[in-house]
Design brief:
This protein is mainly α and 116 residues long. The protein has one domain: 3 helical TM bundles of succinate and fumarate reductases, CATH 1.20.1300. It is elongated, with a radius of gyration of 18 Å. Pathway: Carbohydrate metabolism; tricarboxylic acid cycle. It is a multi-pass membrane protein. Membrane-anchoring subunit of succinate dehydrogenase (SDH).
Length: 116
Amino acid sequence: MVSKASSALGRNGIYDWLLLRISAVLISFYILYITVFLIIKYPLTYNIWCKFFAYYFTKIFTLLTLCAILLHGWIGMWQVLTDYVKPIAIRLVLQFIIMIILLFYVIYGVIVVWGI
């Protein structure tokens, strides 16, 4: 019998699966957005890059993508740790370390994007 295990983000497996797919689609759109920009503005200069990230749409899209990466990374790592690290104490410590790293990543991204 399988006991119910839940992540901090999902209520069940289907919810986690849906969050992973939504975050993956958002990340894909962001990659497409950046790729199209790089193709259109081929001789890319520092000034063009700064102007591109001065647009509020780009800033908000970047932050949403950073949050999607956080969500995607957390659920994926939670699943891997749940499957392969059986001692609960070790798994909780690893989950805590991963959570801190992911939160630091998003906070640093906010600082870089908004120039706080």
